[in-house]
């Protein structure tokens, strides 16, 4: 059922926040309560209208310190519980998210500008994240190592204590759950700073987790700007690791700040993924897959298949079929049930997309479909961009090298397998990739040779919390999700216990 949204969204957001937070005011969620910021005012903008619907204050360093202190105490309480008890609580977290799923999806839809149907799917995945990691709580076993001495040597996976997580605006509640679940499974407490543009759903998520039974202060959401609140969190001496999801430019700054304190990072950064179609592929499936790879979430996904590499024998056919299908995709208000493509999240990203497309056309690319802003009834001031197909793109063009993060696919021809691999790897990124082919040997060869942390065969964007996710090159380092993601939130301790009688004498030392 479509829910009614006023032009500026204020009434709906106010009502949802009152229901879920107990107040229509907003700030940071620290130690189980909503706390006002101390810094500059920050506007929240409805991407579908361009109107400001809420304002809040930057949290600031004092609130960060309070959050870090609360996290230390909560982490001790949490880690003193049995692993089984923590697992049961985490499973309750998933149940609580499912109970609040519809309201959480609506809040995400308005505040992030994402189609409601997508938000419902992502909220369900958040519940799944906590349920999955609930099962890992009592399975974090170490090893007994047969060292060549009389010692019993074993390992322990221990939490860091308090970790900082910085998440992006394109999928706030999804990336919030994606990071929080493994962190607390491993026994850590969290200071999470969502994008200042989309803080609402993550803040509500923290409250839901407390209602499910985690200690107050275990998950704190500090809402504010990166150069103030985010920087204060990374610099805080109580915080022991940083996880960042966002752009390579910001990621390099965060890695540098963490290095100054000699604390580790996990960086999940940008992508320019190559989606490769060979002439033996099922073109019906491949063309549909190409659309899903780039146009879902208006292309605002780090793994979007923004480079479509097509064998020269079927290049023209694929361009024509893709362009025809793309022209039929309706862009509309995100809260309508039928909407598949909504607005771009913010004005800066909107302008970035327009600039890259204009530059590509100037460099010789041809607009096969879309190629500009679009008018949406009821969203006259919104950031709506037509799903766009660019043909005759060369891989050295900016549009093929820079992350566009919008509903624009660049179609690039290739001659053979080696040529496709060379083009795919001619990028500073290495987050994801895919191949469409009927040749199983070729599929395995491509999977082995394309530089990407995730690679699909005859599909695209299959992602699950059970499987590790991360990038090569400037797409970052470290892994989130799966068992590998869980280990990122632990430190391995090696314990040596002497078992020999009179061990000191054996080493030649006197006991007198």
Task: Describe what you observe in this structure.
This protein has 512 residues and is α/β, with parallel strands linked by helices. 40% of the residues lie in helices and 20% in strands. A seven-stranded mixed sheet has the order 14-15-16-13-12-18-19, with helices on both faces. A hairpin with a 4-residue loop joins strand 3 and strand 4. The protein starts with 9 loop residues before the first helix and ends in a 6-residue tail after the last helix. The mean pLDDT is 95.
Q: Count of DSSP E strands?
A: 22
Question: SS-based structural class?
Answer: alpha/beta
Strand order of the largest sheet: 14-15-16-13-12-18-19
> How many alpha or pi helices?
17
What is this structure's SSE topology?
Elements (H helix, E strand, L loop, with lengths): L9 H12 L6 E3 L2 E3 L5 E6 L4 E7 L3 H20 L2 H17 L1 H12 L3 H19 L9 E2 L5 E9 L2 E5 L5 H14 L3 E5 L6 H13 L6 E3 L4 H10 L5 E5 L2 H14 L3 E4 L5 E4 L5 H13 L11 E5 L3 H13 L19 H16 L3 E4 L18 E4 L6 H4 L6 E7 L2 H9 L3 E2 L1 E5 L3 H10 L4 E4 L14 E2 L2 E2 L4 H6 L2 E9 L4 H4 L6
Parallel strand pairs: 7-8, 7-10, 8-9, 10-11, 12-13, 12-18, 13-16, 15-16, 18-19
Antiparallel strand pairs: 1-2, 3-4, 5-6, 6-22, 11-21, 14-15, 17-20
